[in-house]
Write a structure and sequence with these properties.
This protein folds into two domains: about 1-30, no CATH class; about 35-205, Carbonic anhydrase (Beta-carbonic Anhydrase, Chain A). The chain has nine helices and six strands, in the order ααβαβαβαααααβββ. Strands 2-1-3-4-5-6 form a six-stranded mixed sheet, covered by helices on one side. It is of the alpha/beta class and about 220 residues long.
Length: about 220
């Protein structure tokens, strides 16, 4: 995509979309009160608003490589992610947080092949926040073929990031009060399906067939999606 296509898109938005919905955008400019925080990968193939069919103002979105939530420390290396989570939970008072991974994730593929990241030390360092997922897959799913191993790693990464999310004080306080729920999802690029982690089933299940459940993650076989 060349830059002029983006500029043309801006003009189309201003002349058509914004012009036809001016009152909506004017109201939106006054404040925001999204009900949820959506944490997902920076992958260009993942569009949170498209997947969830939400409008501007309906999701607070945090994106990074691998949909990672670094565990909280007083001097966390990634202040941007911690700040976004804290702002969403404390100021915006979101009712739910979703961590959404996706199939064929390049970050997770890199996680399983760290030697291939020698020319990207920053990426390798960032993926250290998913080390638990890497070790779970490498040590417990050795018999799986590579494509199935990647599927499991995508799911394990989501569950590990949910555990990291719980370490953030702003999240822990709200969850202790019972007014904040967290969910783990996986978006399948090939089919458009979205799977949510079910504590009762112990695995990810299609959202088409099951309502979302707040996540307390045990682990069972997850190679099939």
């Amino acid at each position: 995509m060349e830059l002029h296509r983006l500029v043309a898109g801006v003009h189309q938005f201003q002349n058509n979309v914004f012009a036809n919905q001016r009152k909506f955008f004017e109201r939106l400019a006054e404040t925001q009160s999204p009900p949820g925080l959506f944490i997902t990968c920076a992958d260009s193939r993942v569009n949170p608003n498209l997947i969830t069919q939400t409008k501007p103002g309906e999701l607070f979105i945090l994106r990074n490589i691998g949909n990672i939530v670094p565990p909280f420390t007083p001097h966390t290396a990634d202040g941007a992610a911690a700040a976004a989570i804290e702002y969403a939970a404390t100021q915006l008072k979101v009712e739910f947080i979703i961590v959404c991974g996706h199939s064929r994730c390049g970050a997770v593929q890199g996680l399983l092949n760290l030697d291939g990241l020698s020319r990207m030390p920053s990426v390798r360092g960032w993926l250290a926040n998913a080390e638990s997922a890497r070790r779970i897959v490498q040590e417990n799913y050795t018999e799986l073929p590579e494509d199935a191993k990647l599927n499991v790693a995508v799911q394990e990464n989501v569950l590990c990031q949910l555990e990291n999310l719980r370490t953030h004080p702003a999240v822990a306080v709200r969850m202790a009060r019972g007014d904040l729920q967290i969910y783990g999802w996986v978006y399948k690029l090939e089919t458009g399906e979205v799977f949510g982690f079910s504590p009762d089933a112990g695995q990810f299940v299609s959202l088409r067939e099951h309502a979302p459940e707040s996540t307390t993650p045990p682990r069972l076989d997850m190679a099939s999606i």
